[in-house]
Amino acid sequence: MKSFFKTRLASLLLLSVLTAPFGCKEKGAGSEAQEKKSDTLTATDYTGKELRKVSFLPYWVATAQFAGYYVGIEKGIYRKFGIDLSIIPFKPVITSTTPVSSGEADFAALWLANAIELKANGTDIVNIAQPSFRSSTMLITKKSGSVESLKDMNHRRAGIWAGYEMLPKALFAKYKLDVNIIPIGNSNSLFLIGGVDIIIANWFDEYHSIINSGYDPEELNTFFFADYGFNFLEDGIYCLSEKLQKDPQLCRDFVLATLEGWRYAFSHPEEAIDIVVKYAKKEKVAVNKVHQKWMLDRYRDLYLPEGSKEFNNTLSTKDYTLVAGILKENGTIKEIPDFNRFYQPIIKER
User: Fold this and answer.
1) d(Cα 227, Cα 149) in Å, to the nearest integer?
2) What does the longest C-alpha to C-alpha distance in the chain come to?
3) How many structural domains are present in the chain?
4) pLDDT in tens, the chain (350 residues)
5) Is residue 250 part of a domain?
6) Do 335 and 255 fall into the same domain?
7) Residue 173 sits in the same domain as residue 30
8) How far is CA 300 from CA 125, 263, 266, 293, 316, in A?
9) What's the CATH code of the domain at 191?
């Protein structure tokens, strides 16, 4: 599962489906009363009321990295919040940027870099919740080699997902390293056979796959980008600004239901994995329960780190400015979108 491919393709699909017409009740927004209402973390009573049909677009196929959404559907959590949620299956097809009429998405999960790019290029999306507080992207080396630190990476070969060179290049430039980047696809094979000294990975996914290939954690060195000042956050919840303005109550209910779904998944991991496998089979996706359990556990670490009882809901200006600045330096965007127009959390910090 290569992060650049899934987020880039999802961004293109998102542009198509988010800009398709959607129906929502007109509601006032922006008043002091509305802001105070958003601060209250209780569900509206939807007993006996018609459910609101809502669609969600993940950036990849059915796996435990979206467990909270699938669990929320299966356990009736979204219905409790007055939502009849459908998940748009991910399809690895690059769509045009012209809106299509084949479907629509009310909400979507995106990586911060992809969301900023969409915003800068004209899609008026907003981040209404940021559950993850730390990037899971990392570099890995073998302890049997001689790359024990960042400086040891100088003049070495690094397997980097094709199209995702921007982040590693920024890290290498910061530490004045001359690293030979080798584009890789959907495989860790080149690293396993010694074709590269370094490989990029996600903590919740590829790292575990490498361990399952015969390496013990003690045999590997890990370098998290976040530890070196490059916290490229994942899994923000986004919608069009228009939807937030027209129906803030729906946005709030969706976020609260989603977080409750994640909380249930973390508290009932075996049941959550069974639910994920059920949806994966519907999409004809081959999944491994052991790997899905690892993925869910790591998402708990990213969403509810040890000692935390509440989900993160903060996108810092520091992380935003860093990511947006690198995108601009790289030529991906021309101007940096205004932070306050990009980040509009529906649940206010108290």
Assistant:
1) 13
2) 66
3) 2
4) 444 445 544 554 555 555 554 434 333 333 333 343 444 445 566 767 899 999 998 888 999 999 999 999 999 999 999 999 999 888 765 333 322 223 368 898 989 998 999 899 888 899 999 999 999 999 999 999 999 999 999 999 999 999 889 999 999 999 999 999 999 987 999 999 999 999 999 999 999 999 999 999 999 999 999 999 999 999 999 999 989 999 999 999 999 999 999 999 999 999 999 999 999 999 999 999 999 999 999 999 999 988 888 998 899 999 999 999 999 998 999 999 999 999 999 997 65
5) yes
6) yes
7) no
8) 26, 9, 6, 11, 20
9) 3.40.190.10
